[in-house]
Amino acid sequence: MTAEKQICLGICVCQMVAILSGVSLLYLTVIVIIPSKDELAMGFKMTPIMCTTVEAKDLASGNKKLPCNWSTCGEWCLSKGSGTCMQINVMVRNNGSKVNFRDCVDISDDACSALDVNVTHIRYCKRGQCKDLTGLYYCTKDGENECRNITPAFMCHSRKVDRNPVQCNEEKCEDRLNGVYSCKAGKCHHLKEINKYWRDCERKCTKLEMRERNVIIFSRERLVATACSSMDSPDNSTFNTTSSIESVSNSQEWRDKKVALLIFCSYVEKVTGKTTYDLLSADCFNATLGSAEDLQGLKDYMMLLQLHQNLGNRSEWVIPPEHTLRVMNNTQLRINPEGCVNTLRKECTAFFETHAHDGFDGMTPDRYPCYITDKSQNFVIGKFDPQRTTTILLVATILPGCLFVLACSCLFICSKSVGVDDEGHLRVTLLQGGAAGEKSDYWMAGLSDKVEDEPAGASLPRATTPVQTTV
Questions:
Q1: CB 382 within 8 A of CB 353
Q2: pLDDT tens digit string along 81-102?
């Protein structure tokens, strides 16, 4: 490669880097730098508290679309207002108590739900909402080809399963879904023998065994029943529950399994020992005692839930109910202060899967950590990582900024050190005071020296003026 080509290539690369880094800097200023600075400036508290979804609605669904004043999460910040307009309102509360159950045996851990299919969330396959269906779905072929998730509450078995699945993509399904389907990532197999799920499918958790149990934990769509030797509550619990939990743990009736502790905990971790288990529970509330006689004949999950509610109404709480932890009653939930993301990885869809159950269909409302700030009482955010936000802000600012300055500096140096000679070729003039094609001061000085060194006879002839003689 010749020197001229190297110069051209270097200038082109610098121009390209300058343009791309400049455009990137403008683009990142809108979608990263300004939102990140605003998020850090709002002063969200580092320690999360808990939020419970009390209402979730999509204003963009249905025949009559309502104006979208705010959204919990939008997939692209530069085009907010298009697509869905999911609004989630939450009850903000302090964290519940921590309770540890020790030396537990005979643990049953079941997936149970009080789901009412008639009011559950609907997927409209004709709108392309069935691409990622996973689980059991009951679909009707009329209208928008609606599908309802029956997985939490029903188990369906069929010997006749359509081997050729119906493929659903982002546009629509290949065929209309009609009946009960077993789906995985949008590939749905028809269960041919099942005509009506409420008649041909089995309701989950209708054969429970509650005898010889003294701990019953409701954890979202999960029921844990066991017999434990003791329990304790750490001193850092939100409620002063240490004394009440120890009082129950030391009672002979509880140890003899004549009474059982019924409690709701958002998180339950099972730690396996040599012969027994420990259950580590967090964010616990709604704890009350029920007698073995009350539990003796219970086999159905729905009846067990009703018993827990009745016991709370007529007896004292061992750990107070959830509403006593309330900080704010009905507040907007946003994934971040902007209410939108720019990853284009369906981050909002994943967020709604764990935050949009409001309990109206019988399922347990979603409970999750959230972050508040003293500067605003109008909303809380579901995701906050100040260290990650700071890192992204620095990268989005420094990297394109340094590239832009470096490229522009190189172009400026090239403008002073590269010129065109008399033959039209690029040459490096090394800051000689002018371009290669111009007559520089060095050239003029050389010409003057040459003229002075020439002999007198070799000088150019001079024009003379004729002398007129007057007679």
A1: no
A2: 556 789 999 999 999 999 999 9
